[in-house]
Design goal:
By secondary structure, the chain is of the alpha+beta class. The protein folds into three domains: about 35 residues, no CATH class; about 45 residues, no CATH class; about 35 residues, no CATH class. The protein is built from three helices and six strands, in the order ββαββαββα. The protein binds zinc ion (3 copies).
C-alpha cells in the first residue's frame, strides 16, 4: 500500500492509502467510488433471431459479428448444459472387471483401481 493524502475526484473524500502509487492525482477515486463506478455489463440492442428456435433476440452481451448463428439465451444455456454433460476426462485406466483399457470417462475417478468400462458398468 502507498500512503498519501489525496482526494477522491467523485466524492471529495480523502484517500490515505492506495494499492498503487498514482501518477495522475486528479482522477483518483476512493475505494467506495471505485466499486460503484465499475461499468455495468455492456449490452447491445438489435433485431436478431435465434438460429435454433427462431426466437427474437433484442439484446446481447456482445456485438455479434456473425449474425447467422446467434442463439437466444435459453438455447445458449441448453447448449452449455449439453456441453458440460458431454465433457469427458481423458486418461488411462483399466476396467476392474474385464481389463479393457478405458481412455475416457465422464468423471474423474477417485479410485482408479475400481473403474469399470461402460459395458461392465451397465451390467
Ligand atoms: Zn469517493
Ligand atoms: Zn433459441
Ligand atoms: Zn469391463
Amino acid at each position: 500500500m502507498h500512503q498519501g493524502n489525496w482526494t477522491c475526484c467523485e466524492c471529495n473524500g480523502s484517500i490515505t492509502e492506495l494499492p498503487f502509487n498514482p501518477r495522475n492525482t486528479d482522477d483518483l477515486k476512493c475505494s467506495d467510488c471505485m466499486a460503484k463506478g465499475r461499468p455495468a455489463r455492456e449490452t447491445f440492442e438489435g433485431n436478431w433471431s435465434c438460429s435454433k428456435c427462431n426466437a427474437d433476440i433484442t439484446t446481447l452481451p456482445f456485438n455479434p459479428e456473425d449474425e447467422s448463428n446467434l442463439t437466444c439465451k435459453s438455447c445458449y444455456l441448453a447448449e452449455k448444459a449439453q456441453r458440460r454433460q458431454n465433457r469427458m476426462i481423458e486418461g488411462d485406466w483399466k476396467c476392474m472387471d474385464c481389463g479393457t483399457v478405458i481412455t475416457s470417462l465422464p468423471f474423474n475417478p477417485r479410485d482408479p483401481e475400481t473403474v469399470s468400462c461402460r459395458d461392465c458398468y451397465q451390467k
